[in-house]
């Protein structure tokens, strides 16, 4: 806003008698004296906090005085001083100075005797002025994200103050004088340098919320029990080792957060907190859940993940209001599929039911693990398995087509363990389906050929693929064919980059070199897989064995229910939980949520994988049919004794469930397209006319499945049947009119996907949003790529990081400067081409949440702003 525009606005406000003037985000560096004539103003906003879609304050990192600091996000100005004429605004009740460069609160503020709310977070204020103490009507004082080191005694004069926000400052001490704030209800002091909670704090009889997370507090004083009105107590990310019995005196307490401390024991006295609804003790050293917690009759959410808990007591089932029980990442002998995924804790009823089954009779450890062999084709994976299991070698071993599964009985820690060995074909055609079988609860053998280079073995590709789908699962790199040439790779660099590499071993299947060493390494790593020793109720274990011993590829679900009944598993919820567990373990397949598949069978996974890989390997499908599949092809390709015609439709539905194919429209007989085996060559007619909106994804490794799954998921928008193995043309239409054409293509060599959209500018952004939503669904299953946008009219220049641009906008920057091009781009105009401002704010917030939560934990619970501060400050 220019000076003339501001003066005109002030004149209008005076003439019309405005009571509120909002000047946030106008790029102002000074205010004219004329603003002093707006004596009727009750609200003056020179900066404000950013709100999310629900209207709640957003928090994040802000550049303050050259340093990134955590605090409320703002839409501010460039003001560093305020004119004295503002003292004339004696009717002001609300003054917001957030997101500017003020170093102090001016003395004339004392004349604003009616002021009720003063907000000045995200500035450079280093001292709380004594003039503030003269604002006897003040009810809310927000000074978070500044450089304040001391709370002055003068604040005690604010007898009407109800809320005091001093988050993210440099305060080291809470003064005794604070007890004079008799009306104070909310005290926010998180992310400071406080080491002690003074006894005087107990004098704040009206206090309802106390936030002291991310400080240096080592002890909770007994005096805190004097806060009889306290409802929320936040003490996460401190150095507290003990919960005192005195906390039971907080009779009004509803939420207690003690995340990331050094607590080893939950005292029985906590049962006295009769109104407690949320108890959060994640990331501590707790080894036992006391029965006394069952006395918390109001408890709805109990978070105990990442501790040392080995047992869930039966007494917890008495918590009839409990909606969330998070006990992930503990040494519990319970399958992680029951406890919950990384994204979401398991259901309370499911966890309790499983524990009930374990207590109801005999139990057996699962004593099973998955050994997955990956690597390029012809490196000797199948020969390696023969040496390990049978101590045999066939120099004429045929190359694996798709996937072979075999069992290997080993003895680990004096216990018999069955390794389910999954040998993947290394040919590129199979990589698209690897995602369905690369799991976290596995040991990986990455097999390479000693005779070829590190690049030819694609070690980086495979290690990133394992990381993407298997997270931190242990990996043993096996350099095979050692008898012909030593393995020449940079061992240290690989270990530094991928800490989950446990061993690098050279072997020869022909003469047995290194096989014993590899065998011992496998035994050691399997012995350290916690999931191997997860417990199953004996009856459940017997059902599992009966299913495996049936020697059938599929059975009716009613047959499964009958087998459960024979083992005494009569309850439907128990049968459902067991089949879901066996499905997640990869021991059977059952798709209870699929409209067609749910009514049919319990499947042998080998029947599914063998059938799918047999189809993908068919040369005629790849060359003659160019990826198009008919039911007649299934009859031609699949052995009829194992794949009778009445099961063909079922196999097709499974391939659709795996996003491997889709049905082509208006085809008779029915035809299905498998994008993963389309011709590689890009058609001639893929150029776009006119200017285009462009977007890019950059991956650490680009799984071949990404683009093929995208083509399947977007098949209803394919333009004129134009597709190839690494790309597709899409159309955005309304009625019969085509508004936009998009080209989406993958470059596996550079690990990038390029999106370009031409046509109607008013709908390009909408079309891009639809495309990105589909990629978001695909990316949910593995490590996220980065997003990039090209520099307008400079395609030769490296693209710009989209999240970086969102962050700059969030910090209030107006432009992005590209020095090499001597170019200054208007940030808002650039980003408006991709998303609306509201969508960008939501996306940026989600991106920040994901960035921080991934480093520590992820949860599905509702987490308020203060809790996010707790967690992010740990990082």
TrEMBL record:
The entry's keywords: ATP-binding, GTP-binding, Kinase, Leucine-rich repeat, Nucleotide-binding, Repeat, Serine/threonine-protein kinase, Transferase
Top-level class of the enzyme under EC nomenclature: transferase
CDD domains given in the database record: RocCOR
Domain Roc: 362-529
Catalytic activity from the UniProt record: L-threonyl-[protein] + ATP = O-phospho-L-threonyl-[protein] + ADP + H(+); L-seryl-[protein] + ATP = O-phospho-L-seryl-[protein] + ADP + H(+)
Its EC number(s): 2.7.11.1
NCBIfam families: small_GTP
Protein name: non-specific serine/threonine protein kinase
Taxonomic lineage of the native organism: Bacteria, Bacillati, Cyanobacteriota, Cyanophyceae, Nodosilineales
């Amino acid at each position: 806003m220019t000076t003339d525009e501001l003066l005109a606005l002030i004149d209008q406000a005076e003439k019309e008698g405005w009571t509120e003037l909002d000047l946030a985000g106008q790029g102002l560096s000074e205010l004219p004296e004329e603003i002093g004539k707006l004596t009727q103003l009750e609200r003056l906003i020179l900066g404000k906090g950013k709100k999310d879609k629900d209207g709640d304050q957003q928090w994040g990192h802000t550049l303050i005085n050259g340093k990134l600091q955590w605090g409320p996000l703002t839409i501010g100005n460039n003001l560093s001083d305020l004119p004295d004429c503002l003292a004339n605004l004696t009717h002001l009740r609300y003054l917001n100075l957030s997101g500017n460069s003020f170093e102090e609160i001016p003395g004339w503020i004392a004349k604003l005797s009616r002021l009720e709310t003063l907000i000045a977070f995200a500035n450079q204020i280093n001292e709380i002025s004594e003039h503030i103490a003269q604002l006897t009507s003040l009810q809310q004082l927000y000074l978070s994200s500044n450089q304040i080191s001391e709370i002055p005694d003068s604040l005690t004069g604010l007898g009407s103050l109800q809320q005091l926000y001093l988050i993210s400052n440099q305060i080291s001490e809470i003064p005794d004088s604070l007890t004079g704030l008799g009306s104070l209800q909310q005290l926010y002091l998180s992310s400071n340098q406080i080491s002690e909670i003074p006894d005087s704090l107990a004098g704040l009889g009206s206090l309802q919320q106390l936030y002291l997370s991310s400080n240096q507090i080592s002890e909770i004083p007994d005096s805190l029990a004097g806060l009889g009105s306290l409802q929320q107590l936040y003490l996460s990310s401190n150095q507290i080792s003990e919960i005192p019995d005195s906390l039971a005196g907080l009779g009004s307490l509803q939420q207690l957060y003690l995340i990331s401390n050094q607590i080893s024991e939950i005292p029985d006295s906590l049962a006295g907190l009769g109104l407690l609804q949320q108890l959060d003790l994640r990331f501590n050293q707790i080894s036992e859940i006391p029965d006394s917690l069952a006395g918390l009759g109001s408890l709805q959410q109990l978070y105990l993940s990442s501790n040392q808990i080995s047992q869930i007591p039966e007494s917890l089932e008495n918590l009839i209001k409990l909606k969330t029980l998070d006990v992930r990442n503990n040494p519990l002998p319970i399958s992680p599929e029951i406890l919950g995924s990384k994204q979401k804790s398991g259901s309370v009823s499911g966890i309790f039911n499983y524990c009930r089954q374990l207590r109801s009779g005999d139990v057996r450890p699962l004593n099973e693990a998955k050994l997955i062999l990956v690597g390029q084709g012809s490196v000797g994976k199948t020969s390696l398995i023969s040496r390990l299991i049978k101590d045999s070698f066939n120099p004429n071993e045929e190359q694996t087509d798709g996937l072979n599964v075999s069992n290997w009985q080993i003895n680990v820690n004096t216990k018999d363990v069955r390794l389910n060995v999954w040998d993947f074909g290394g040919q590129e055609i199979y990589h698209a389906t690897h995602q369905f079988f690369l799991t976290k609860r596995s040991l990986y053998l990455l097999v390479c050929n000693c005779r070829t280079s590190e690049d030819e073995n694609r070690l980086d590709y495979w290690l990133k693929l394992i990381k993407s789908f298997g997270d931190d699962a242990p990996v043993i790199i096996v350099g095979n064919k050692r008898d012909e040439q030593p393995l020449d790779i940079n061992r240290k660099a690989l270990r530094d980059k991928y800490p989950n590499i446990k061993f690098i071993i050279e072997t020869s299947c022909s003469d047995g070199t290194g096989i014993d060493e590899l065998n011992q390494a496998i035994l050691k790593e399997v012995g350290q897989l916690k999931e191997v020793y997860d417990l199953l109720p004996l009856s459940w274990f017997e059902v599992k064995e009966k299913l495996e011993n049936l020697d059938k590829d599929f059975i009716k679900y009613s047959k499964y229910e009958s087998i459960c009944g024979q083992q005494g598993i009569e309850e439907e919820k128990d049968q459902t939980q067991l089949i879901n567990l066996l499905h997640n373990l990869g021991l059977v397949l059952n798709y209870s949520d699929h409209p067609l598949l749910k009514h049919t069978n319990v499947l042998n996974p080998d029947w599914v994988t063998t059938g799918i890989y047999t189809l993908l390997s068919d040369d005629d499908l790849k060359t003659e049919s160019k990826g198009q599949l008919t039911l007649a092809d299934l009859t031609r390709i699949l052995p009829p004794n194992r794949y009778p015609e009445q099961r063909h439709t079922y196999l097709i539905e499974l391939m659709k469930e795996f996003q491997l194919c889709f049905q082509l429209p208006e085809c008779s007989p029915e035809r299905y397209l498998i994008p993963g085996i389309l011709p590689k060559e890009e058609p001639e007619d893929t150029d776009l006319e006119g200017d285009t909106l462009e977007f890019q994804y950059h991956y650490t490794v680009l799984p071949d499945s990404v683009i093929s799954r995208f083509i399947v998921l977007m098949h209803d928008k394919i333009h004129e049947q134009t597709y190839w193995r690494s790309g597709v043309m899409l159309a955005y239409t309304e009625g019969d009119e085509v508004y936009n054409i998009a080209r989406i293509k993958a470059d596996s060599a550079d690990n990038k996907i390029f999106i370009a959209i031409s046509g109607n500018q008013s709908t390009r952004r909408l079309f891009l949003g639809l495309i990105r939503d589909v990629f978001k669904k695909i990316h949910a299953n593995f490590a996220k790529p980065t997003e990039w946008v090209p520099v307008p009219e400079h395609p030769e220049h490296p693209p710009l990081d989209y999240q970086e641009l969102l962050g700059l906008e969030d910090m209030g920057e107006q432009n992005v400067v590209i020095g090499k091009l001597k170019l200054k781009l208007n940030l808002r105009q650039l980003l408006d081409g991709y998303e609306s401002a509201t969508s960008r704010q939501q996306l940026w917030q989600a991106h920040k949440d994901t960035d921080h939560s991934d480093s520590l934990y992820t949860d599905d619970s509702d987490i308020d702003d203060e809790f996010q501060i707790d967690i992010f400050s740990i990082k």
